[in-house]
Amino acid sequence: MVDHALQLFANMTEKGVLANIITYNSLIHGLCSFGRETEAAKMLIDMEEEGVSPSVATFNILVNSFCKEGSVKDVELAVQAMVRRGLVPDVIIYNALIDGYCLRGEIDDAEKVLDDMVKRDIVPNIITYNSLINGYCKKKQIDKARHLFQDIQDKGLIPDVVTYSSILQGLYDSGNPAAARELFSEMQTKGHTPTVLTYGILFHGMCKNSQTKLMHWLSSVRWEAMN
């Protein structure tokens, strides 16, 4: 599919039809969708040579693709390229970078990116904090995760089911099933419907911690998400 689009693009340019930012962004997105990030990055250079300046949306496409591939270094380079061109990375790009660092266990670097966001007056959202909380939990830093969980609520942000699921995972991994049970009850009280992933975390955590009583308790909760 993308090769047909590239051929059409080549035919178009041969006839002297000028491509615009929408055309280039569409092609870059298509290339990235098929894992052809190197070609996508080259197209960014080509578009500039043709006098078409990339936009924040252009870099969003590249950054998201790099993150899916786990290429955090390429994300860093993309952000640097944006800044050199006078473009300001938005919350989507910062979130992608933070998530990339957290998935690699490089929490210190993720925290530095968060600090940079704040300095640039870019307001972190729940997606930003979910990545950090998940990163803390995976690094067995449950106290930091719980502190951030409380901090974001003090700032007026509302945790979602992803936030709760990450903390639940962290609590079970740290050997604190009682706190996990309490948090799960709080989650439901606040109107968050557990997902299949949430229940999977509960089952695994209970078995891991030999919580047979909790298994009986779980059987009594409502299973809206499973029906």
Give your account of this protein's structure:
- With 227 residues, the chain is mainly alpha-helical.
- 72% of the residues lie in helices and 0% in strands.
- The chain contains 13 helices and no strands.
- It has helices spanning 2-14, 21-33, 37-49, 56-68, 72-84, 91-103, 107-119, 126-138, 142-154, 161-173, 177-189, 196-208, 212-218.
- Helix 4 (56-68) runs parallel beside helix 6, helix 6 runs parallel beside helix 8 and helix 8 packs parallel to helix 10 (161-173).
- The longest helix is centred in the N-terminal third of the chain and has 13 residues, at 2-14.
- The protein is elongated and about 70 Å long.
- The mean pLDDT is 89.
Please supply descriptive tags for the structure shown above:
227 residues; mainly alpha; 72% helix
Would you list the SSEs in sequence order as H and E? HHHHHHHHHHHHH
Q: Which spans have pLDDT < 50 for at least 5 consecutive residues?
A: none
Number of helices: 13
Query: What is the radius of gyration computed over CA atoms, rounded to a whole number of angstroms?
Result: 22 Å
Count of distinct strands = 0
Share in helix: over 70%
Q: Structural class of the helix and strand makeup? A: mainly alpha
Strand content: under 5%
How would a crystallographer describe the biggest sheet? none
Short description:
The protein has 227 residues and is mainly alpha-helical. It has helices at residues 2-14, 21-33, 37-49, 56-68, 72-84, 91-103, 107-119, 126-138, 142-154, 161-173, 177-189, 196-208, 212-218. Helices cover 72% and strands 0% of the residues.
